[in-house]
Amino acid sequence: MADFIEPRTLKGFRDYPPELMIPREALLEKARRVYRSYGFAPIDTPALEYAEILLGKGGEESDRLVYRFRDHGDRDVALRFDLTVPFARFAAQHIGKLGTPFKRYHMGPVWRGENTAQGRYREFWQCDFDTIGTTSNASDIETALVIHDLMVALGFERFEVRLNNRLLLNGVLEELCATGKSAACLRALDKLGKLTADEVCGEMVREAAVTEHQARRILDIAAMRGTNDDILQRVRRDYGGNAKVAEGTARLTELLDVARVVGIPEGRLRLDLSIARGLDYYTGTVYETFLLDRTNFGSVCSGGRYDNLASLYTKQLLPGVGASLGLDRLLAAMEDMGLLPKVATPAPVLVVQFVAERLGDYQRVARLLRAEGVGAEVYPEAKKVGQQLKYAEGRGFRAALIAGPDEFANGTWKVKDLAKREETTVPQSEVVTAVRSIVDRQ
Amino acid sequence: MADFIEPRTLKGFRDYPPELMIPREALLEKARRVYRSYGFAPIDTPALEYAEILLGKGGEESDRLVYRFRDHGDRDVALRFDLTVPFARFAAQHIGKLGTPFKRYHMGPVWRGENTAQGRYREFWQCDFDTIGTTSNASDIETALVIHDLMVALGFERFEVRLNNRLLLNGVLEELCATGKSAACLRALDKLGKLTADEVCGEMVREAAVTEHQARRILDIAAMRGTNDDILQRVRRDYGGNAKVAEGTARLTELLDVARVVGIPEGRLRLDLSIARGLDYYTGTVYETFLLDRTNFGSVCSGGRYDNLASLYTKQLLPGVGASLGLDRLLAAMEDMGLLPKVATPAPVLVVQFVAERLGDYQRVARLLRAEGVGAEVYPEAKKVGQQLKYAEGRGFRAALIAGPDEFANGTWKVKDLAKREETTVPQSEVVTAVRSIVDRQ
């Protein structure tokens, strides 16, 4: 008797069976189509890199999260923990050949040995797009359009891309308190939503050494509500003399103008001066995206403009702007909203194998359907029809095709609508039409 | 002055810039479409697994090739080195829930720390499909059809799927020499092509302890040429009394019959009794696929039937059949055949930014094209038109759209064919048609 090895995955890792993988592939495919339609080109980088590349020369404190080991050549290597650092290395290494502006998207798994609470996994996919090598606001604007089109392509209507500009925030902070306190203030501000306004106020006083009065003024700005025009007008009126505020508002104004010209529905892009994005490297426009029916899932697509992507690896300045689609959050939200059909087959039609000797005919009708873009599986064994139909229903097939001796004698096929449990008999020439009327129905 | 970290990849690893990644994505997408059209469902498994799962309990001799280390929880873990072993573990773990038959495809990177000579990389993609849980010949037949359709979908016409059946070979070996010598004989036979017939003969005598006369007879069988019918007839005549030969020829005959009924062109599927597939676990039909204009690249899609997938992890018998598309070989062959256009943009149209204030109009026309399925990039800066067109040509854009003050005054666009260097001026309403006539041209 064999002594079996227990089949199991590592803690924090999971398999993707078809029910999870079919939606993930659909989502990636839709995102890919949008990225490409804007001219973003795909790249890939290795999963394994020199640890020094990923962690920087002194990055020991990150080690806890990073899968790091010695390879066969005794190199100090690690698995990538995001797609940004590899992209920075990639850009520094190849930008001379790639040229600028350079627009890329990158989809792939990353690994972090972190705590696995709350549905966090140690392996998860990221899905980033960036434009580097230009400071032009045209790219900031395009980033907002891409995010918008992504959400529409994924099937959402009730969503909101929330916009801000770190220049605007920094300018306001300059006016309200001493310079040099911005970073700490923004880090505190970024916690709005997780913490109460009072708590954020307290953190600003503690961490950024501003007065409580100053902190309250900052929070007032962040809490500003109204139309985009209202907000821009009030900021210009109160702080427009500040050069940073002037530039930040000018860039946001142009963004909203272009969005109007190209026909983005009102309300989809909304200024929100509380959006700070805690990451220190954002320096201009920042983006967050919320599903209005599931704001509790947090931002599902976030990003911003940065001054320099690859300062660790090259002296060449590479300013850029980009965002990252939160694949797992989106899938979780879509599942919660009932938007993910429980389907375990990518082909909607099952061709029943009724008479084993007729396998050629079953495969031939399946090929007819495939040629028309309708996936069709032929059941591999000539089991009882009832068993085959049970299999079809369990996997989420939409239609079944059945032909036994009678049908072959008459040149007909039975077409079964598996959801409605209705069956019609049609001549061979009408099979494709009959199947289409079932599988194209929502 | 900063002390930069040298941007580089590990030995044996490489980046995929757009010129490499665009064809890889296109290839994966086409393969995915074919797999799905037959009802194969996507799955994914973690890159990292328990080393014991991947290597078996005593698999120390494989270690050299495998990236293996201790994780933060001091677990003995490794990066997957193929997609078959993780699939076996996956199947053993989930088959109760998945049910049989189960058809899956799996595309993803695998890692092997092997020698990097001859364009071999330490990270490369595999692209497998399998049907498990049935011994039915219908699945063997379908596997051949899938391979055929894959090659057609990838744009090949001159290719050949070479077929054999290990039962047939084993039966012949039973007749020619003692049983129990099959495995060593087949391993030697698999080297035909790399070694001369004489060398293979020598190896059989040495490794399988057969006589030279026996080895020569085996090689005669393997060298048999002629139509599929000729070969089947001769094998049946000479060895048809052997039960294994009878079953092997029956299964191959049915396969070829079905292929004829469904309309696979003659010559695409060819019996070749020298195909042995060295792997010991193949037990039935075996497949190899050759590009007739690049046979030197070896088989680009190979596989076979096996008796039991997951014997390491479960007592449940999981027979199956499947194959693996050699992504990197195919890409290398396609490059060699000049089938990979040197294009660094997934969008065929560049919209020139002539007047910065008209960005909204440029993005609007780009959206018109995108809505029609034509990718369009808006250049992010209002640089000189000549510079923008140079960028467009360098990246492989097909068409450029240009509008300055005159065009805006007249409601027209200049449409430039970048390959032909021809330019026409059309009204806004005809832009999509004019662009299509350029980008749809081969």
Strand order of the largest sheet of chain A: 1-5-6-11-10-9-7-8
Whole-number tally of structural domains of chain A: 2
Instruction: Point out poorly predicted stretches of chain A.
Output: none
Beta-strand proportion of chain A: 15-25%
CATH-level-2 architecture of the largest domain in chain A: 2-Layer Sandwich
| Strand elements of chain A, count | 16
Largest interface: A-B, 113 and 113 residues
Could you tell me the mean pLDDT of chain A?
93
Largest sheet of chain A: 8 strands, mixed
Terminus-to-terminus distance of chain A: 51 Å
CATH fold title of the largest domain in chain A: BirA Bifunctional Protein, domain 2
What is the oligomer described by this structure? homodimer
> Percentage of helical residues of chain A?
40-55%
Shape of chain A: elongated
CATH class of the largest domain in chain A: Alpha Beta
Key words describing this protein structure:
15 helices, alpha+beta, eight-stranded mixed β-sheet, elongated, 442 residues, 19% strand
Provide a descriptive summary of the structure in words:
The structure is a homodimer. With about 450 residues, chain A is α+β, with helices and mostly antiparallel strands. Chain A folds into two domains: about 20-335, 2-Layer Sandwich (BirA Bifunctional Protein, domain 2), CATH 3.30.930.10; about 350-440, Anticodon-binding domain (Rossmann fold, 3-Layer(aba) Sandwich). The first copy, chain A, is about 40% helix and about 20% strand. Chain A has 15 helices and 16 strands. Chain A has helices at about 20-35, 50-55, 85-100, 135-155, 165-175, 180-190, 195-210, 210-220, 230-240, 245-260, 325-335, 360-370, 385-395, 405-410, 430-440; strands at about 40, 50, 70, 75-80, 100-110, 125-130, 160-165, 270, 280-290, 300-305, 320-325, 350, 375-380, 400, 410-415, 420-425. An eight-stranded mixed β-sheet of chain A has the order 1-5-6-11-10-9-7-8. Chain A has a five-stranded mixed β-sheet with strand order 13-12-14-15-16, sandwiched between helices. Chain A has a three-stranded antiparallel β-sheet with strand order 2-4-3. In chain A, strand 12, helix 12 and strand 13 form a beta-alpha-beta unit. The first copy, chain A, is elongated and about 90 Å long. Chains A and B meet through helix 1, strand 1, strand 2, helix 3 and strand 5 of A and helix 1, strand 1, strand 2, helix 3 and strand 5 of B.
